[in-house]
Amino acid sequence: MTTSVDPAAAHGDTAAHPEPGSVPELVPTAEPAAQAPAVPAAAGPAPAPAAVTPAPTPAPAPTAARPPLRLGLTILQLAALGIVGWGVLSVLFSLLGTGLGLVLVLGVGLVILIGLVYALYGVAWFEVERVSALYRLAVPPLRLRPRVEPGFAGYLRTIGRQSIDGAMWRGIASFVLASVAGTVMLLLFQGLVWAILSAAGASPAFDALSGSLGIGSGDGGSATIGLWGPISAVIVGILCVAGIIGIALLHRSVSVGIVRAGAQTAQLTRQVQVSARQREGAVRAADLERTRIERDLHDGVQPRLVSVGMTLGLAQQKIAEDPEGAKQLIAEAHTSTKAAITELRQLARGIHASVLDDRGLDAALSALASRSHIPVLLDVRLQGRCSREAETAVYFAIAESLTNAAKHSRASECRVVVRLREEGTLWARVEDNGIGGARVLPGGGLDGISNRVLAVGGTVRLDSPQSGPTSLEVSVPCAS
């Protein structure tokens, strides 16, 4: 639906979360595509407010190699590693020995050991890329440990952490095992070539064998050797071929297991980090919400109720002597009571929007736009509903953005766009034509937006230059 709401039609209520603040300064992104129910997950540079770009067509997945071709590639790669791998390992061992031997000689050994760490990383990176490309594994590339401390001492600590990196050593282990398998495969290739030549009668191996056994002097012995020579060669050839294929299949199982183990470990680490950030965001959002409620009660409703009590007390004292004055005081207390009820209603709406549960995000945002003090162009295109947590996070993000626009941006108009994307993401964008310059204020209202959205696994992006306009984009997993 597309709704334009004028402030003249709004009643006296203010928007939810009447607290100033700002959002973190992030990069603006584009408005979603016009397909209902879907838009692309990653938005690009922000277009004009009325422009709607189509969703990009995803690139086709690469065609996996056929099993025989992949088996052949595995055999060729192992054969190459059987030749080159031991040379690479010899260089690594030479660097290790030289570095340890010269570590006390003007720091030369330390430089060599640092180079050894980078060489080990290069070998491990090559092995992970080789295995993932050969077997079409969706694993992240191996990366160097990031530097987190400044100075040379911080650099050395980073090198030390890299030298004990488990992912790197898993890649080295896979490379060593592949080199061993390649060496065995080369021996089997030699046996296969020998068997082919022997079966074709081009090898003097059986003549030498018969002479050493002393059975080649008679015609009978020669006939026996002539009979069993080709048969033995065929058996040896079959065994060599079976060994080559078996080693290739074994290498696939072992290398894929090693590489995937590293990827799974990295994925679990990322999941733990994301969960920790979400938990931190949830705790922070709850703390900010409690602080806001306490401040609103202490600064707004509580003084008004105290004033009502005092006014009623004065009216009680005057009711016998000055009935007219007592009536005026009672009328004043009645007016203050209605104002306190209005503030309590606004406060409750800021905690929980009942219309959101009853009628969905579209209706809740329409009610929110009708209470805004500046005109709001609302463009919501949703088919179906998301989880309660996702809708609540997006609703309160939009509510806080409209409140800040009314209080601080000096905007004359706001535009709110909400879409449901193909990837199962609830996407919203709030844009005003104000003065811009929004910044994060710890403990502020829009700081609460970031924490609330982070708690449900979403992201917040903002573009707010000093001259304006300000645009806020929120993406939340629909099933959060």
From TrEMBL:
Enzyme class, one word? transferase
Matching InterPro entries, A to Z? HATPase_C_sf (IPR036890), HATPase_dom (IPR003594), Sensor_HK_TwoCompSys (IPR050482), Sig_transdc_His_kin_sub3_dim/P (IPR011712)
Q: Where is the composition biased (Low complexity)?
A: 27-54
Give TM regions.
75-96, 102-126, 171-197, 227-250
Keywords, alphabetical:
ATP-binding, Kinase, Membrane, Nucleotide-binding, Phosphoprotein, Transferase, Transmembrane, Transmembrane helix, Two-component regulatory system
Region annotation Disordered: where it falls in the sequence: 1-63
Q: Which residues form the Histidine kinase/HSP90-like ATPase domain?
A: 389-480
Q: What is its EC number?
A: 2.7.13.3
GO terms, molecular function: kinase activity
What this protein catalyses is: ATP + protein L-histidine = ADP + protein N-phospho-L-histidine
Record-given protein name: histidine kinase
- This chain's source organism reads Leucobacter rhizosphaerae
